[in-house]
Amino acid sequence: MEIELRITDKLTKDDQDDINNFIDVAVTYKCTHIFQSMMGGIDYWLAPVGNFVLRLSFHKPHIAKKTVKKVQELLSEKFKIIRTHSVVSPTDIKDKMEDIERVIRREVYMTCDVCHHTIDFNDYCPYCGAKADERLNYCGACELAFVPSYSHCPDCGKKLTRVNATVWDYDVPNNHFFDGVSIEPPDA
Questions:
Q1: What's the pTM?
Q2: If the chain, 188 residues long, is cut into consecutive pieces of 10 residues, what is the mean pLDDT of each piece?
Q3: Domains and CATH numbers, the chain
Q4: Which residues pair with 7 in a beta bridge?
């Protein structure tokens, strides 16, 4: 089930009330992450609350960026906002939240390069069938190797490079690659 609150591009007092109602309901249900997406040119935010999804959206497409940014700022005071292009249903949100919880528990080693689902070490993605790429990502500046699901170094912020090495090439517990493992610079 989905409940929708529509706001105008004027951000009137009624719109502010709807934004605050969205925040209050989401906080009541202990929501910590919300999803931001766009469909048909209309920006919207989704909060998984209990057995339903709460949607906050504009009443028309192509709203000024400064207005969208203002709403984004209000929401980001209370929630971690996850920008996505693939969340369109309550079922999708449940799946995404399960993925987020796995990341928080440090159970996500890989992300499928095709469908972007989080996956375990497999030869193929169980969601789309694409060949999985187990190669590590490497930060040349810090000389640290990270799990394949990372795209940027958590220490220096630089973009990581995919290298011809996997967690199986090192005598180190797999979960250490979340924090980075110091290795000799491998061949890219």
A1: 0.53
A2: 78 92 92 85 85 86 89 93 69 67 60 79 83 88 87 89 84 78 74
A3: 2-102 (3.30.720.90), 106-188 (no CATH)
A4: 58
